[in-house]
């Protein structure tokens, strides 16, 4: 049996409070990175190769970073859009490419590479590939 292993990275954005956002990211074992303009982004370095998550002792559940739209949005400056991209595989049985976008209102959009391509092929060529 193989494990799903992925890499996760974000774009760079302006946030309301860099220290608070860094602390939020630490809960998910994400490493903050900065661009030349001082915007913050991150990549995941949790050691087990899975999507970023944190353990919630109150609910006894693992909460993934991508499911925290309200929390992510609360850190963003108005009109900023945080994108998180994940690429992964399970011993090359399958490949996964997903992207998430979050705005300052806590709204989220999701795109799965394979589904989006099938839809685009169907729209443009009349079949699903």
Query: What value does the Rg take, in angstroms?
Result: 16 Å
What is the share of helical residues?
10-25%
| CA-CA gap between termini | 29 Å
Total helical segments: 3
Arrangement of strands in the largest sheet: 1-6-7-8
Describe the fold and architecture.
The protein is of the alpha+beta class. It is built from three helices and eight strands; from the N terminus they run βαββββαβββα. It has helices at 18-26, 69-75, 113-125; strands at 5-10, 30-34, 40-44, 53-56, 61-64, 81-89, 95-103, 108-112. A four-stranded antiparallel β-sheet has the order 1-6-7-8. A two-stranded antiparallel ribbon has the order 2-3. The longest helix is centred in the last third of the chain and has 13 residues, at 113-125. The chain is globular, with a radius of gyration of 16 Å. The relative contact order is 0.18. The mean pLDDT is 92.
């Amino acid at each position: 049996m193989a494990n799903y292993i992925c890499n996760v990275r974000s774009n760079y954005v302006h946030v309301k409070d860099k220290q608070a956002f860094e602390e939020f990211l630490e809960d998910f074992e994400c490493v903050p990175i900065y661009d030349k303009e001082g915007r913050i982004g991150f990549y995941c370095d949790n050691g087990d190769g899975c999507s970023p998550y944190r353990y919630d002792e109150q609910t006894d559940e693992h909460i993934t970073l991508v499911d925290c739209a309200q929390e992510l949005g609360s850190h963003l400056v108005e009109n900023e859009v945080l994108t998180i991209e994940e690429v992964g595989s399970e011993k090359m049985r399958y490949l996964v490419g997903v992207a998430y976008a979050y705005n300052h209102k806590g709204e989220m959009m999701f795109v799965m590479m394979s589904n989006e391509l099938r839809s685009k092929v169907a729209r443009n060529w009349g079949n699903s590939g």
